[in-house]
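Reader question, answered in our methods column.
A reader sent in the components of a multi-part assembly and asked whether the whole thing could be modeled at once rather than chain by chain. We filled in our standard form and ran it. Here is what they sent:
COMPLEX SIZE: two components
ENTRIES:
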Amino acid sequence: MTADKKELAVAALSAGTVIDHIPSSALFKAVKILGIANIHTPVTIGNNLPSKRLAAKGIIKVADVEFPEAVLNRIAIIAPTARINIIRDFKVVEKRQVELPEKVVGIVKCDNPKCITNNEPMSTVFHIVDRENTECVTLRCQYCNHTVTNSKAHLL
Amino acid sequence: MNTDSLVTIDGLTREDMLDIIRMASYFEEHPNHRILEGKVVATLFFEPSTRTRLSFETAVNRLGGRIIGFSDAATSSSSKGETLKDTIKMVSNYVDLIIMRHYLEGAARYAAEVTDVPVINAGDGANQHPSQTMLDLYSIYKTQGTLDGLTITMVGDLKYGRTVHSLLMAMRHFNPTFRFVACNELRMPDEYKLFCDKNGIRYSEHTDFSPAVIDTSDIIYMTRVQRERFTDIMEYEKVKDLYTLRNSMLDSSRPNLRILHPLPRVNEIAYDVDDNPKAYYFDQARNGLFTRQALICRALGIDPLAYKNHRP
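And here is the structure of the entire assembly that came back:
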């Protein structure tokens, strides 16, 4: 039995979604992006947990909710290492890594004050510059072409 | 987004650029060609830019089109708090083409997204000014007879200069060799050097505007070094005259060399260069008219050469 499974057993989630291996620094951003505040089923959030791969990790467990893939992938920009576990009847039925979306709409704020997106009632749109580099994700604003790295990105 | 819009220079392929150059040279021979009869064009200038506006408006007038618009945001409803989207939607009801200058970066792209009327970007903040790049390409083509395999030396403010960045990106289709001549504070940003590396473009960097650089160039593209770009004013005083081109510096330059400058110039080109046949910056500005006539026709899907042949 792996360490992962032991942890999941402790939480005893009968059904729902576990998002594991979120870098600690990105945990609360992930909570915000997924709109966890508006979920009414039991939610467990853990942070600064020991991890073999990360310095410290965060985890989000949401009972009885399965998010659409596109929604989960939105956290890939701030937590490219995150792993999704879908639980049904106490079993992990699906396990996968989040994937960087083609474009990131309405999540990240452009840090260029002269960008049109900061001056009009409109959504921001960012494209991933270098998809290969998951360590440091660089986003380029579709409108003003300014770039921002994921660790420095401000969320809307 | 409507595909006839011209928002960034990256939106143009090598063939697009050569087509526009062909059209521009046609307009140079036939500047008064009334193929926009019955068309109305809006020139929306949210920030004043007399040079660019007059050039575009002359282009429309010489093509026989009509113009509506404003030359300053203070005289538009944006001063009442109207969003750009609403202004564009409203104007789209009236016109066949929108030519827009805006102080915000990305404004042209957004405008092109919210309307079905084609939009030509006449400059959006520090972001893009594709008609300037096209007139630079036309000027290079006209003076050299080709765009391929040229040695282009860029001098002055290579850090903030929007025109040099766009020209560099546009030239990727034409196998250029670049020389970047600038002081350390204003040198070419890494982003663009990386772009050169990725596209197999040869370049070298120099802090000296030396005879070795000048005498091996086909094009010297001068830019203005502005005092406000410097964090250290002592540094500005030290370098401000290092990148001034004087007539005597051109004595052993190549016969085909031409000097380009997006204008306005201050002191980076001495006045004694003006009479040298290698000085091309005033003709370059004139080429802007023909290039803009070509860009307007392209955006409206009109081929002036085909039109000429089918005219009764």
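What stands out: The two ends of chain A are 40 Å apart (CA to CA). The mean pLDDT of chain A is 87.
Send us your own complexes using the same form.
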